[in-house]
Amino acid sequence: MRPADLNRLTVEESADRYVELVRAKTLTGALSPATAEVYARDVATFVRLAGEETVLDDLTGEDVDAILLAFARKPDGRRSEPVGGLQSASSQARFRRSISALFKHAVLAGWVQVNPMTLATVTARERGGLRPQRRALTREQAQGLIGAARDLSGGDSRAAASPERAAASPEREPDGTRAGSGRTGRRDQRTEVRDALIVLLLSTVGPRVSELVRADVEHFYTNDGVRYWRIFGKGGKTRDVPLPDDVARVLAAYVSEVRGTGQGSVQGAAQEKALLLSWRGRRLARGDVQAVIDRVQRQVDPDRRRSVTPHGLRHTTATHLLADAVDMDAVRRVLGHSDLATLGRYRDELPGELEVAMRAHPLLRRPAGGG
Fold first, then answer.
1. Which site in 185, 186, 241, 361 is 20 to 30 Å from 192, CA atoms measured?
2. Domains (ranges, CATH) in the chain?
3. Catalytic residue among 74, 208, 227, 320
4. pTM of this prediction?
5. What phi and psi values does residue 34 have, to the nearest 5 degrees?
6. What is the pLDDT of residues 309-343, one digit of tens each?
């Protein structure tokens, strides 16, 4: 029998109330605006698939399965050529998490008697569904990318003289940078050191791309000779991460030689605070970061080059720190995860790692000084 206080809202009504609550959490810092919009977008898709006038409490586990399958078959509008015409496994898993959060709130709010997500059986194999660009680079690929970034930060002439750069169009890159511009223009318009810093921070510290572009100059400080980055992460949480010495040197060069000299080209106090600026002197946008990575990748030897996204470089940080036996909790704190279970999703397999582990098996080592 249905409880007397059950509120039989339609799917559309419940979604509207839930999204309003989610967006309100951004005002307190409990959620980032970007995360709130992801929830809102997924819930809007859920409304279309479930039917606006359907009563939320009438949905069963089978109904939810049908909705999840319908979403999986839905073309991914972010891609011009969706893989197989389907949503990626990671997108399916994200959609499932968004809907689960809606129903958890619905139970607490008295909109449903039973959470139908507990009866749903459709899941996505998220680890196997990651696109190659979102997976970690191998050690050789990562070192090739980092080496190219070091060359740029050191003013290596090969960066400006690359045949690929010379052949590039003089049109601007997505972030406003002049493609193939080399080291011409005012000092504040030279982007080589900035590009190097972006790649080094992403590859060695593994921030979320939103955390990277939100960084201000004042978020970096020195304590006992160590350079730290105070990262403002999801849910209003902050973490202080020490920078590797090589990265700290590039940061210092960028701030003193490039970033600190071009204030005349920056419009407004907000832009003056930003660490990473476009060629036009505006805070770099999230979508510009991929263009920076691709530009640095063009300097990497083709045998060590592989397309990678900012999220793939976050995987790269986690994978290689863990592969080098760095304490799991330390890696969790570097990445800004709340628990170790989440960290497991960022640990990718590396070719040959099992063979290395078995060759160095701890039970087969000879005792020191033993005969």
1. 241
2. 11-129 (1.10.150.130), 133-356 (1.10.443.10)
3. 208
4. 0.60
5. -65, -40
6. 998 999 899 989 988 878 888 998 999 887 777 77
